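Hi F.,

I've been meaning to write this up properly since the lab meeting, where we talked about keeping a consistent format for the predictions we share between groups. The idea is simple: the sequence comes first, exactly as it goes in, then the structure tokens exactly as they come out, then a line or two of notes. No screenshots and no reformatting. I'm using this chain as the first example so we have something concrete to point to.
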Amino acid sequence: MVSTQQILQKRKRVSKKNKKSWRKHTEISDVEEFLQSRLREERTGGDPTAKENKDLFYIDKSDIFQTTKTKLASMKCHSELQIDTRVAPVVGRIGPSKKKKKKKKAPLLAPDMITSSSSEKKQGLYDIWGSQANVAEDTKRDPCLPPPVQARAGYKSSDTKLSAVELPHPGTSYNPTFNDHQDLLKDALEVEEKKEKAKLKATRDAAPPIEITEEDYIKEMSIGLNGAASEEEVEEEEEDETEDQVKSAVRRDRKTRAQRNREKAEKLKAEELAKAKLEKQHLHQMNRIKAIQKEIKREEKEMSEQTALRQAKSLENETKPGKYGPGKFLGDDPEFVLPEEVSSSLRKMVNPANNVQERFTSLQKRNLIEVRRKVAPHRKYKLKTVEKWRKKLPEEIDELVKMKRKKKKIKVSE
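Output, unedited:
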């Protein structure tokens, strides 16, 4: 192998003016070995030749070789003698206790003090007709059955404030006072007047019948008879239109400098007048502050009245039925009895009301069911008209027989 001296002799005349050439042409392997040995010693704890005995050796004072009672007890050979806690101990049979617990009698409570707790339900002390009877849930549920369906957060049974059973009008009593009965008749009269107005409006808004006079009839029937004259009129109209277009297409002369200056001055004058008008309006408004304050008060009063009307309408809408279907809720007509039919005895009382119909309209009014209409009796399919053979003439019957025979012959030939 080639030694370092031979390499240096060969590369005797080399340039070492910069760091790159210096690193390339100098031998630094012995320096790298020395640095690596120093790093190795630092990792392993330093040079052992430079350390003292107390740093290299130490006296072990642990009790590895000392045998105590606890050490003997923890030995594996003595584990068979110890108690295994994983095995349950053998216990003798324990019979039922002979002491019987005395059952406490539940105290009698007033109906308003009865609650719907689980303990009271077991004792049978809760109001079955109360609103809290079904609130407490049954905790002992069968795990095999599916969980009960819970209502969604936004679910509403009814979004109206109407009661299930509304109080009837005092005029519908079997022996009402005169004023109550007259109020009931007044309400019924208003309902009938509204119906009549709606009928009159429907007939009034309808298109009136068209009256055709004799002149209109002659004019309409004579259209198209004088074709040549109509063509000449059309040609004359076209010529007039072309002349108008030619006149409008005449080139306009260019404006002079004086005309443009005049227009500019007029424009500036109009702007100055508009500005002066605005300043005058501002001054006028400054002078009429009291009138403006009165206008503001009037507007505030109108706004307060409108808000009051809006609130009253919203309260009224809370008791009105909503629209949950194509139909519109009309309600029943007020039930009333004429003055000569009013009787002071229940035996002679005439009851025009229908309880089933009243409950049905109450459900619709409280938004529990949608508004429904009575379905009139109708046929779901169209009737098919067939002419019987015996109703036809003999000649028609012969023609039909010949047609059937021809069709049979065509099929056989095919």
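Notes:
Residues 106-116, 131-136 have pLDDT under 50 and may be disordered.
Residues 257-287 form the longest helix (31 residues).

If this format works for you, I'll send the rest the same way.

G.
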